[in-house]
Amino acid sequence: MSGGAHPAVPAGATIGFLGGGQLGRMTAMAARTLGYDVRVLDPEKDCPARGVSSHTITAAWSDAAAAAELAQGCAAVTLEIEQIPRPSLEAVARTAPLHPGVDAVFTVQERARQKQWLERHHFPLGAFRVVTDAAGAEAAVAALGPSIVKAAMGGYDGRGQVRVKTAAEGRAAFEQLKAPVCVVEAFLDLHTEISVLVARRADGTSVAYPPSRNHHTQGVLTWAVTPSGVSAEMADRAESLALRIAEALGIVGLLAVEMFILGDGQLLVNELAPRPHNTYHHSERAHPTSQFEQLVRAVCHLPLGSTEIVRPAAIHNLLGDLWDGGAPDVTKALAIPGVRVHLYGKKEARPGRKMGHLSADGDTPEQALERVCAAYDALTR
């Protein structure tokens, strides 16, 4: 038991999940392992976490009454998706402890609000502008040069954003996105993309996972590997930065901090996510404590687990495109040493939809990445 104002949530208690997608499913499985019961709220009737949950409420994120119903009888409520309207978050928080809290989620869930919060707190960012009309987007691109125009609310995995080179394209992108607020971000001289995951308890105790090196294709994560290969000095800088952001936000639970390392060695924050993160799915293979178990530990006031790397590991996403013509033959991937297949149980495969991932370990990060990429290639043949 943890002492003081935050006693540990005992085994047998119920944890509520706002979100029953793959992140909710994998965290719920970790909660079950630790002896907790699970309740889930999700808009999809057949969400991936339904099979792990004792009770699933099917309702829109905007349904505050349903959110309050979820919280009834829960010792803690956490989330796997941040874009939940504030009234629903507040309805939960009035009934049960919500981790992360309302203000932290509200700050992070909208890109403009998140960027402006980071800027006010003097965390390092690339050049950006917040715009509310097409003329503003045109002027922003004229000032910043080639940029990415992103809808401030919603949109992820490459959706809700347009790459532009000219001011006229900036205007057209704003009109195309049809969002009331957009963020225009200047292109950067990227050397490496990394992320750092922080776990933090209500008493302020926190730990950081070593950086993950990540590769994206059209805005969607393709693979991630740890150790990242960055210098020890850069890893220390990145972990310190992520820990400071989590403390400033007052996070209880997890915070993933996506970062850019530029060609000149600058370290900049890209985006934040107050939940488990795709770039740390390899934590199940590389660390004594997976990100999913760590989230349960954090929100239930349990001792945080070790984040040391005990074995290099990598993951590769499986998108719905692979299901064109039927489910892929996973035996081809499983034939490669060190490879595991993780499928999310989604009923409908669509191009770009995350249906699962492959993971692999190895004696070196290069071997782990080589194995997981080979397994992916085997599925495409």
TrEMBL record:
UniProt key word Ligase: yes
GO BP, one annotated term: 'de novo' IMP biosynthetic process
Binding site for ATP: 111, 150, 155-161, 185-188, 193, 216, 270-271
Domain of life: Bacteria
A Pfam family this chain is assigned to: PurK_C
GO cellular component, one term: cytosol
Keyword Ligase assigned: yes
Annotated signal sequence range: none
Annotated ATP-grasp domain residues: 115-300
EC number(s) reported in the record: 6.3.4.18
Transmembrane segments: none
InterPro entries for this protein: ATP-grasp (IPR011761), ATP-grasp_carboxylate-amine (IPR003135), ATP_grasp_subdomain_1 (IPR013815), PreATP-grasp_dom_sf (IPR016185), PurK (IPR005875), PurK_C (IPR040686), PurT/PurK_preATP-grasp (IPR054350), Rudment_hybrid_motif (IPR011054)
Keywords assigned by UniProt, alphabetized: ATP-binding, Ligase, Nucleotide-binding, Purine biosynthesis
Catalysis performed (reactions): 5-amino-1-(5-phospho-beta-D-ribosyl)imidazole + hydrogencarbonate + ATP = 5-carboxyamino-1-(5-phospho-D-ribosyl)imidazole + ADP + phosphate + 2 H(+)
Metabolic or biological pathway: Purine metabolism; IMP biosynthesis via de novo pathway; 5-amino-1-(5-phospho-D-ribosyl)imidazole-4-carboxylate from 5-amino-1-(5-phospho-D-ribosyl)imidazole (N5-CAIR route): step 1/2
GO molecular function: 5-(carboxyamino)imidazole ribonucleotide synthase activity; ATP binding; metal ion binding; phosphoribosylaminoimidazole carboxylase activity
Subunit structure comment from the entry: Homodimer.
Job of this protein: Catalyzes the ATP-dependent conversion of 5-aminoimidazole ribonucleotide (AIR) and HCO(3)- to N5-carboxyaminoimidazole ribonucleotide (N5-CAIR).
HAMAP family in the record: PurK
Family classification: Belongs to the PurK/PurT family.
Protein name (Swiss-Prot/TrEMBL): N5-carboxyaminoimidazole ribonucleotide synthase
Species per Swiss-Prot/TrEMBL record: Pseudogemmatithrix spongiicola
Lineage: Bacteria, Pseudomonadati, Gemmatimonadota, Gemmatimonadia, Gemmatimonadales
